[in-house]
Amino acid sequence: MNIFDAGLLHGADYNYEQWLDRPDILDLDLAYMKEAGINVLSVGVFSWSLLESAEGVYHFDWLDECFERLHGNGQRIILATPSGSKPAWLSEKYPEVCRMNADGQRQRHGGRHNHCRTSAKYREACARINTKLAERYGTHPALILWHVSNEYNGMPCYCPQCLSAFRNWLKKRYMSLDALNAAWYTSFWSHRFTSWEQIFPDDASIHGMMLDWQRFTSDATIDFFLAESAPLRRITPDIPITTNFHLPDIGLDCHKFARHVDIVSWDNYPEWHRYGDDAEVAVKAAFFHDLQRSYKNQPFLMMESSPGATSWQGVSKKKKAGMHLLSSIQAVAHGSGSAQYFQWRQSRGGAEKFHDAVITHIGDNKTRIFRDVVEMGVALQKLGGIAAIDNEADPDGGEARAAVVYDFENGWALNNAQLPRSVEKNYQQECIAHYSAFWRAGVPCDVISPEYADFARYQLVVFPMLYMLTEETAEKIRRYVRQRKSAVATYLTGIVNGNDLCYLGGTPGGLTDVFGIAVEETDSIADYENLEFTLDGQTWRASHYADRIRLLGADAPGVFCGPQSDPQTGLPAITTHRYGEGSAYYICARTEAAFLDRFYRRLCEKHGLSPCVLWDIPAGVSVQKRGGAVFVMNFNSRETRISLGEDACRDLLNGKTVCGTLALPPYGAAILKK
Ligand code: GLA
Ligand code: ZN
Questions:
Q1: What residue's CA is closest to ligand 1, atom 10?
Q2: How far is it, in rounded angstroms, from Cα 210 to Cα 449?
Q3: DSSP letter for each residue of 251-313
């Protein structure tokens, strides 16, 4: 089933079960949904205790009614499995479904997203309820997608079942304790294990073990998802499956996870207006959208977003005029096939009663939020089919030929590492910093896995802080550069292998000949220091980390230039090296945005990566291409004028023709087509 066959989706989580005692409200909902152009609803996300009030005692009448009413009203349905929150009777009857902390205490029942993922009892209970749901609703004409569970996470459980599953996972990986001891370097601090039962994954000083524990937890979550999905796959083979990811880092390797879902979906909650500069927030959101698209090189769903403010962000601002449309359009520009909200109607009680929803407590359709949602519904209709088109299938699309590598496992390994500078390692932020140079330039960019991505699709791949570089990835990079391609690596790249063991013989491990350099040491730059380097006659700031490198054939167009007394001064800061038919670039320090803009602009020119438009893109404006249309988005709080040159276009949002200059209001957007 192609869930985009009827165009873009506009939807929300619909917690029907919270309003069963208010038929008047349920009636109003249907009318308001039509008015807002809502065409899909996610139902059942947290309704287990209502669906199954005691073991084997089911109540589907209310859900039947919900299906019929939505279907009759013209909406389609995404049906969630309820495992994100377990019913109290289940925890009471089978305490093993609750997670255990490292001191052996069972968590009390409550909250959500906290079941033990290896518990056989929990798996059985999920399989039972999911089977019932699939049998009952699997052939319902309104059903288009399974939403399995909700926001899985990689929080640990130390119960005996999980520990034993972990030890089995290790036996498979290492075969023998000798191999495990070698991989974990247990000769350090006398940590050698002489039986599998001695292994308890709560010792931050054994990095190899902690990394494997995180890998195991992620794998166990994927395994749980597969078990949970099995009845759905069996009974409804034609209904696609998703699970909604949320913000990294959630302890899951989502690159790996995404291989098992049919459609990627995620929950997007940018902190608009929180820090003054919304362009910073926008680039972060763009990065995460591009990550979702890149998981499978496919359109994804924005399963949740807030139509107003959230209630969990510390300070969450209401959206200023234009921002709702802009934020939702941004998702579509980067590959989303939907704009969906948490949630349709604001809850009266419970932990999130002050989280905005399409219909707020005042209860009617006259609010600013409702009007914003109506506006978005109209916009999605106007965009029609364009956004469901896969860029790859679209010759005039914005297919990316540049990519930034973002690796979850690397993030875990870096978190564990005690470096000479451990404050502000900021791995994710640094990936976003490199990505943002492409974003500002309007050059399409993917966000990819070092392990699963096919580098050959790209002309330029950036590896920011890829501290943990497996031998396989090193080999992949070597092959990639050899074929006339370009790679950029930075300080702290290729320091440890896949077992978190340091490379000997200079870094980047296994690639010193490709980059034509060997890093001897990495100095920490303290915040008061003003280390600088020059490149092409301009001076730039270096911070946080600076490598002392040995040139092994590379050129050093960039050189550290001061202060005089700094041991880095006079040493290479930026290097380039020909390898095979390609080029390998190395950036020896953390640098500033203006430098990255300059550096990548040059590389893009050199390698023929053109921006998706010919015009100058003003600061704070993002330009993305999708389905042959150019999305122009102004994240500035002031009107911004963009000179389009000769191009005359039609703005799909308002139907007007634009010639010469496009004036976008604060937080305004246009979708231009020639
Ligand atoms: C998450 C959850 C929802 C809700 C929203 C609130 O994304 O999936 O159930 O808690 O956050 O922002
Ligand atoms: Zn457990």
A1: 352
A2: 21
A3: SS-HHHHHTT-SS-EEE----TTSSS-HHHHHHHHHHHHHHHHHHHTS-BEEEE--SS--SSS
Stated pTM of the model: 0.98
The closest alpha carbon to 412, from 461, 371, 467, 362, belongs to 467
Cα→Cα distances 376→9, 35, 387, 484, 595, Å: 11, 11, 14, 44, 37
8 Å CB contact between 183 and 501: yes
**Of 412, 445, 446, 447, which Cα lies nearest the Cα of 427?**
412
Residue-wise pLDDT tens digits, 290-335: 999 999 999 999 999 999 999 999 999 999 999 999 999 999 999 9
Across the range 282-297, mean pLDDT stands at 97
Residues marked active site are found at 151, 304
In DSSP terms, 650 is beta-bridged to 657, 673
d(CA 509, CA 518): 9
Q: Are 331 and 10 in contact (CB under 8 A)?
A: no
Task: Write out the two tokens for 477.
Answer: 């990079």
Range 58-87 average pLDDT: 98
N-terminal to C-terminal alpha carbon distance within the chain: 32
Q: How far apart are CA 524 and CA 542, in angstroms?
A: 11
Residue type, position 455, single letter? F
Distance from C-alpha of 91 to C-alpha of 108, rounded to nearest angstrom: 8
| 391 pLDDT higher than 50 | no
What residues contact 105, with CB distance under 8 A and at least 6 apart? none
Residues in the 5 Å CB sphere of ion ligand 2: 116, 157, 159, 162
What gap in Å lies between CA 560 and CA 534, rounded to an integer? Answer: 6
pLDDT of residue 395: 52
Give the pairing of strands 589-590 and 621-626. unpaired
Ligand 1 pocket by Cβ (under 6 Å): 150-151, 246, 267, 269, 304, 306, 310, 342, 352, 355
Sorted by where each starts, the structural domains of the chain and their CATH numbers stand as: 39-262 (3.20.20.80), 402-606 (3.40.50.880), 621-673 (2.60.40.1180)
How far is the centre of ligand 1, averaged over its atoms, from the C-alpha of 81 (Å)?
15
Q: Is 129 exposed, middle or buried (CB count within 10 Å of its CB: 0-12, 13-18, 19+)?
A: buried
- Residue 151 C-alpha to ligand 1 middle, in angstroms? 8
CB atoms < 10 A from the CB of 417, how many?
Answer: 16
Residue 497 phi, psi dihedral angles, 5° rounding: -90, -175
Q: Is the peptide bond prior to 61 cis by the omega test (within 30 degrees of 0)?
A: no
| Residue 332, CA distances (Å) to 392, 556, 668 in order | 16, 41, 15
DSSP track, 536-593: TTEEEEEEEEEEEEEESS-EEEEEEEE-TT-TTTTSEEEEEEEETTEEEEEE-EE--H
- Concatenating the DSSP letter of every residue in 42-91 gives EE-TT-HHHHEEETTEE--HHHHHHHHHHHHTT-EEEEEPSTTS--HHHH
Return all residues near 57 (Cβ < 8 A) that are at least 6 apart: none
pLDDT at 387: 56
Supply 304's token pair.
């949740």
Do residues 591 and 541 lie in contact, with contact meaning Cβ atoms separated by under 8 Å? Answer: yes
- Please say whether the beta carbons of 117 and 98 come within 8 A: no
Q: For the segment 446-457, what is each residue's pLDDT rounded down to a tens digit?
A: 999 999 999 999
166 CA from centroid of ligand 1 (Å): 30
Distance between CA atoms of residues 581 and 598, nearest Å: 24
Which helix (H) or strand (E) covers residue 147, if one does? strand 143-147
**Nearest alpha-carbon partner for 464 in 546, 578, 586, 282:** 586
